[in-house]
């Protein structure tokens, strides 16, 4: 892979990449214009949320479960004045015999892909492929911005 286009299967001039860059730059501008400058950790969190939101908004289809789940999670965290509640995860242990056709790796994917917990195996693989492609585009965008701002 060359340095110019680290994504062999994606076009950096595609509408999705352009929309992701547009959404991310607009969010960065909003963060920069904020009157009270937040602490470093809060600013880092805001930038990370902006990156995830721009990635989810620019997803090629709003039907993707991962993008809807990611946006829902970000909206839940942004609600002002909500009380912090500590939730305990209730882990239901299913016997290994109940899903013999699915490898343990599928369970790992379900935990990594936003919204992947209730998906069937084939849908999970499609969502994972789309999510990874968007993550790669996000990394490429960040590298491009870093190169532009550092020179």
Automatic annotation (TrEMBL):
<dbReference type="InterPro" id="IPR044660">
    <property type="entry name" value="IBH1-like"/>
</dbReference>
<dbReference type="GO" id="GO:0006355">
    <property type="term" value="P:regulation of DNA-templated transcription"/>
</dbReference>
<dbReference type="Pfam" id="PF26576">
    <property type="entry name" value="IBH1_N"/>
</dbReference>
<feature type="domain" description="IBH1-like N-terminal">
    <location>
        <begin position="23"/>
        <end position="77"/>
    </location>
</feature>
<protein>
    <submittedName>
        <fullName>Transcription factor IBH1</fullName>
    </submittedName>
</protein>
<keyword id="KW-0804">Transcription</keyword>
<dbReference type="InterPro" id="IPR059002">
    <property type="entry name" value="IBH1_N"/>
</dbReference>
<keyword id="KW-0805">Transcription regulation</keyword>
């Amino acid at each position: 892979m060359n340095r110019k286009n680290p994504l062999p299967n994606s076009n950096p001039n595609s509408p999705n990449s352009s929309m992701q860059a547009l959404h991310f730059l607009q969010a960065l501008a909003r963060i920069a214009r904020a009157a009270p400058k937040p602490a470093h950790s809060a600013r880092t969190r805001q930038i990370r949320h902006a990156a995830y939101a721009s990635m989810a908004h620019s997803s090629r289809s709003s039907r993707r479960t991962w993008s809807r789940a990611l946006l829902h999670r970000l909206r839940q965290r942004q609600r002002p004045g909500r009380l912090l509640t500590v939730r305990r995860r209730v882990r239901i242990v299913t016997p290994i015999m109940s899903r013999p056709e699915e490898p343990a790796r599928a369970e790992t994917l379900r935990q990594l892909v936003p919204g992947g917990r209730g998906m069937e195996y084939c849908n999970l693989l499609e969502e994972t492929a789309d999510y990874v492609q968007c993550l790669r585009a996000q990394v490429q965008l960040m590298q491009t911005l870093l190169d532009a701002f550092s020179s």
